[in-house]
């Protein structure tokens, strides 16, 4: 074994051991066994919503376990390849070249697995509900909001994560005023929560006939999806519910009945609109679930604020503007918190945001560690 591989492979194994200690594959196997028993129940599909939750959770758990076991096997295969190269001088060059490529791929995939171990927040394991709203910048901001929505949906598609658009409010000329969608994946909330904040786009406006440079803004909100065990009770007297007709781009009617629902939580002023489902009852249930999720986050933020007040002033702030997408006069996407940047905005807009997300998760963990030590 060469000196490089003799150092690298043990380092990979150490990292893998740390990941396994946090990921707890035995607990995963137990979860899979329990979910498999539930999935095999003859009356499972009597409750369609529960059946979908069980089968989705089972699929996710199986995929997680496979990622862990496959990674261990890849490290074993790499070690075997390097040992074979040392025994066969004729083939050693090709084998070592292949081993180097495998080593880099394993490093990258281990880094992604390691990121998962940093997601230890109370709601990090949940599905995510993402809301994007256009900000300052007029029609360019509405177009930018739609670009961001496509970016996140493409990111989910790259990873094979199911998504569900729950509500879209289209702008008059182009783009969207706002949109809400769900990302169904293990740790979707913990992963995407670092994307929350204000995003800025600088470009030559396609809507300006003088071809001037325009700066526009959009806000991204990420909340964990409510679960039945969370017990967020909302008295009916605290709710104001309006119904209206669903519409598509440009106000075109897509539904001939008043099935869309706008739900307002009177004490906080939080408003949720839902029009994805066909019936008013379904849209009301979906709106209530998202409202409960937002109230859950609000409660959590209030608890954190109280802890921060007791602990004193701790330096740890996200700030309003967290990322800039510059297309003119140069091409760059830069995260203003982590300093991570990319010179390929088109790939980023096509869903290539994993490096930004990973850098954000590491940055957030460092901020939390500094706050705790302070």
Automatic annotation (TrEMBL):
<dbReference type="Pfam" id="PF03462">
    <property type="entry name" value="PCRF"/>
</dbReference>
<keyword id="KW-0648">Protein biosynthesis</keyword>
<keyword id="KW-0175">Coiled coil</keyword>
<dbReference type="Pfam" id="PF00472">
    <property type="entry name" value="RF-1"/>
</dbReference>
<feature type="modified residue" description="N5-methylglutamine">
    <location>
        <position position="252"/>
    </location>
</feature>
<comment type="similarity">
    <text>Belongs to the prokaryotic/mitochondrial release factor family.</text>
</comment>
<feature type="domain" description="Prokaryotic-type class I peptide chain release factors">
    <location>
        <begin position="245"/>
        <end position="261"/>
    </location>
</feature>
<keyword id="KW-0488">Methylation</keyword>
<comment type="function">
    <text>Peptide chain release factor 2 directs the termination of translation in response to the peptide chain termination codons UGA and UAA.</text>
</comment>
<dbReference type="InterPro" id="IPR005139">
    <property type="entry name" value="PCRF"/>
</dbReference>
<dbReference type="InterPro" id="IPR045853">
    <property type="entry name" value="Pep_chain_release_fac_I_sf"/>
</dbReference>
<feature type="coiled-coil region">
    <location>
        <begin position="51"/>
        <end position="116"/>
    </location>
</feature>
<protein>
    <recommendedName>
        <fullName>Peptide chain release factor 2</fullName>
    </recommendedName>
</protein>
<dbReference type="InterPro" id="IPR000352">
    <property type="entry name" value="Pep_chain_release_fac_I"/>
</dbReference>
<keyword id="KW-0963">Cytoplasm</keyword>
<dbReference type="InterPro" id="IPR004374">
    <property type="entry name" value="PrfB"/>
</dbReference>
